[in-house]
Design a protein that fits this description.
Layout: E1 7-12, E2 23-38, H1 46-54, E3 59-69, H2 75-93, E4 100-107, H3 114-122, H4 124-127, E5 129-130, H5 133-139, E6 148-156, E7 159-168, E8 181-186, E9 189-190, H6 195-205, E10 221-226, E11 232-233, H7 235-255, E12 263-271, H8 274-285, H9 288-296, H10 302-309, E13 322-325, E14 328-329, H11 335-347, E15 350-356, E16 362-369, H12 373-380
Parallel strand pairs: 3-4, 8-10, 9-11, 12-15
Antiparallel strand pairs: 1-2, 1-5, 2-3, 2-10, 6-7, 7-8, 12-16, 13-14, 13-15
Helix pairs in contact: 1-2, 2-3, 6-7
Main location: cytoplasm
Subcellular location: Cytoplasm
Pfam family, one: ArgJ
Length: 384
């Protein structure tokens, strides 16, 4: 596996979890151009406050992450803990504390085991290894069942660079830039150096198009770090690779939704604008009735009509509306068509839905998963 030049990392167990990895550091041997997008939840975690502060100048050199505890709803003490983590790690790595972005994910409302984290920060430098990002991908997991990794090699002017992304997330996910965390590293820079603008556009087309359970986490974070060690590449080449990685990670998050048995990909076509297709797409994929029907193989197409119709401020003419599951039209389906739909839903682990609004030319794709008994089991007893 290839990694971008100049990045070092590790993941280890420091006693927050019983035995699995729960702490990670990503470090660059040069200051990186950087951008980040954070949760819009009104009660963001303490690391979000610190991250927003530290990313203001557009540079980072390290990321520090702990899992199992989100450091959310922990008051001023939680914020000071996040600052102290950055300060302690900065001394170990011999970099500016303002060039470190902290992340935490896990249970809300419980104070950080700060001494364990600070001790791990003190010895961070000796644990760093070149690349090694698969270890970080494991350390950031909470209810995830598998690591989420995506990377691309980028050839330009005789150089072969790498863009490498990792993510975590399985529940409490409807990003509005969960818990959803994603970190993307690259040894190229886009020619414009407009990382913030490029990242925001890509996030709007990918991570913000995921919904597992309609709950927007208090900790959602996407970070992009570019060392520029291989120079610059055209913005469109940079952005296209970033979008491919973000799309792949988004689908992996949706597929790994808590208790999920199916990935759902919904494309809303021929809408008036982004606002209309987003409202309707999210309404469909946030509907428990739609998601349970897909799980059960129930071709109850009326649930799609309900989910579209309840978007009160975006009335769609019924006669213009078209809905397809796996290429099969569902409106007015007879018994034979319903049998085909049921077979499609039951026999496939990836379900493709197309909704045509016929109110304009705008199109957008969204991802989610079905609702199963496993989701209830996972969340009914999460802290017990």
């Amino acid at each position: 596996m290839k990694y971008p030049l100049g990045f070092y990392s590790f993941g280890k167990n420091i006693g927050i979890k019983d035995t699995s990895l729960d702490f990670a550091v990503i470090y660059s041997d040069v200051r990186c151009h950087a951008a980040a997008v954070f949760t819009r939840n009104n009660f963001p975690g303490a690391p979000i406050y610190v991250g927003r502060d530290h990313i203001q100048d557009g540079y980072l050199q390290a990321i520090v992450i702990n899992s199992k505890n989100s450091n959310v709803a922990t008051g001023e003490k939680g914020i000071q803990d996040s600052y102290q983590i950055c300060e302690t790690l900065a001394k170990s790595l011999q970099i500016k504390k303002e060039d470190i972005l902290p992340s935490s994910t896990g249970v809300i409302g419980v104070p950080l085991p700060i001494e364990k984290i600070l001790n791990a920060c003190l010895t961070a430098k000796e644990n760093l290894k070149p690349g090694n990002l698969d270890e970080v991908a494991e350390a950031i997991m909470t209810t995830d069942t598998k690591k989420k990794i995506s990377y691309r090699t980028i050839n330009h002017n005789g150089n072969e660079g790498v863009m490498y992304g990792i993510a975590k997330g399985a529940g409490m996910i409807e990003p509005n830039m969960a818990t959803m965390l994603s970190y993307i590293l690259c040894d190229y820079l886009p020619e414009s150096k407009d990382l913030k603008g490029i990242l925001k556009r890509v996030v709007d087309q990918t991570y913000n198009c995921i919904t597992i359970d309609s709950d927007t986490s208090t900790s959602d974070t996407v970070v992009l770090m570019c060392s520029g060690k291989l120079g610059t590449i055209p913005d469109d080449l940079f952005a296209s690779n970033l979008k491919e990685i973000a799309t792949e990670l988004s689908k992996k998050i949706a597929r790994d939704g808590e208790g999920a048995s199916k990935l759902i990909e919904l494309t809303v076509k021929h809408g008036r604008d982004d606002n209309q297709v987003t409202k309707i797409g999210k309404s469909i994929l946030n509907s428990p009735l739609v998601k349970t029907a897909i799980y059960g193989g129930d071709p109850n197409w009326g649930r799609f009509i309900m989910a579209i119709g309840k978007v009160f401020d975006e009335p769609i003419p019924y006669d213009k509306l078209e809905i397809q599951l796996g290429g099969i039209s569902v409106k007015g389906a007879d018994s034979e068509t319903k049998s085909k739909l049921a077979e499609y839903l039951k026999s496939n682990e990836e379900i493709f839905i197309h909704v045509e609004l016929n109110t304009g030319k705008f199109e957008k794709t969204f991802w989610s998963c079905d609702f199963t008994e496993g989701y209830i089991q996972e969340n009914a007893y999460y802290t017990t």
